[in-house]
Prior knowledge:
Elements: H1 2-18, E1 22-34, E2 37-48, E3 51-65, E4 72-87, E5 94-112, E6 120-140, E7 145-162, E8 169-185
Antiparallel strand pairs: 1-2, 1-8, 2-3, 3-4, 4-5, 5-6, 6-7, 7-8
Amino acid sequence: MKLRYLSTLVLLFLFTFCEAQKYVLDVAFEFQAYPTGLIPGLRVEAASGKHAGHLRLGYNWIRHGSAGVHQNERGSGFGFSLGYKRYFVETQLGSFVELKSDLWFNEIDWQDNIARPNEIRGRSDVIVSQPTATFGYTFRLNPITVIAPTISLGYEINVWTDGEPTGEGAIFLLGFHVGRRFEKIN
């Protein structure tokens, strides 16, 4: 049921951009790295003029180590992003700024008092909201391939936790997306 609502929203979102006189659709692999994790994903972006919107489906590998609440935190989870991008020129190339929000459904295995007789282990299920602001630059590698290196700053917020609390806070990400561009002029 939730998948049906999500797919309907995505299609409405994409069709809104497709009604414009000229639009582009990018289907891309996206990768982001931050000090305590990696995020690969599949990104679909629709743009018209200086405006673009995107959806990303991804996987978050988390290695908080001792940077979280516990002495060691490791985990992973699937999630998605919705975002708005503003290009500085109407060609959908060059500099851009982007605001997006991720939602991650993570399982975190944690440990305290490691290698001691009173060692404690546990698992927490956590839903994380991660709003970020991004700056990037899109350019063509060839007539159909685009690449965009990015730098992002945001905040991880644990909005729901089943188990012990785990790390959250400011996040800095470096990334890129590379993919196929489809253009249409009506």
